[in-house]
Amino acid sequence: MSLFYDCSDLTVRAGALSSAAHCVSSGQLVVLPTDTVYGIGANAFDPVAVADLLAAKGRGRDMPVPVLVGSWSTIDGLVNVVTDQARALIEAFWPGGLTLVVTHAPSLDWDLGDARGTVAVRMPLHPVAIELLEATGPMAVSSANRSGQPAATTAEEARAQLGDDVALYLDGGPAEAGIASTIVDVTAEVPRVLRAGAVSIESLRKVVPDLVG
């Protein structure tokens, strides 16, 4: 039976985060709050756990799992080069609702699906998520819902869809944005918006004027 923790109770939160980090390190799945929608997460460097995440969602390898990080600097260890445009977007919108698709370092030992050498990376603006990521390092995290169903904006909604496929649920209150992150591909010379979402294209163009939307 899954564990469920109310992280608004500060007497519960530290223990809940410790339990969640243990679950991640042991290859289990956890649900965590973010600023956009709730996420289902696993150790990004555990291919069996990532496969379990895809299975829990009913999703194939053709839709690779994004990665959440707990600090700006983490991306420097995930890619060979952070372009000036990518750095500007990170400084403007992280932590927050912007996901960047980057070419990851070939030395990384992970399998997030059929990503063809790229990875989608985001730093969420939520204290519970940040504290967990600081304990675990980068996590493979997708929206906490069955494929084709609405993304969960509360822990209860996530539990209703995912049930005991997830070992532990962290309830951090309703997701503030309630919509998924904006995704921008920065692997080419001109950044391109792949999905509109929490960060508007107008806001992005204030930082990168030649952005293709």
UniProtKB/TrEMBL annotation:
InterPro entries to which the protein is assigned, alphabetical: DHBP_synth_RibB-like_a/b_dom (IPR017945), Sua5-like_dom (IPR006070), TC-AMP_synthase_SUA5 (IPR050156)
Organism taxonomic ancestry: Bacteria, Bacillati, Actinomycetota, Actinomycetes, Jatrophihabitantales
Principal localisation: cytoplasm
Domain YrdC-like: residue ranges: 14-199
Pfam families: Sua5_yciO_yrdC
Subcellular location: Cytoplasm
One example GO MF annotation: L-threonylcarbamoyladenylate synthase
Protein EC: 2.7.7.87
Catalytic reaction annotation: L-threonine + hydrogencarbonate + ATP = L-threonylcarbamoyladenylate + diphosphate + H2O
Family: Belongs to the SUA5 family.
Keywords of this entry: ATP-binding, Cytoplasm, Nucleotide-binding, Nucleotidyltransferase, Transferase, tRNA processing
Protein name: L-threonylcarbamoyladenylate synthase
Family annotation (SUPFAM superfamilies): YrdC/RibB (SSF55821)
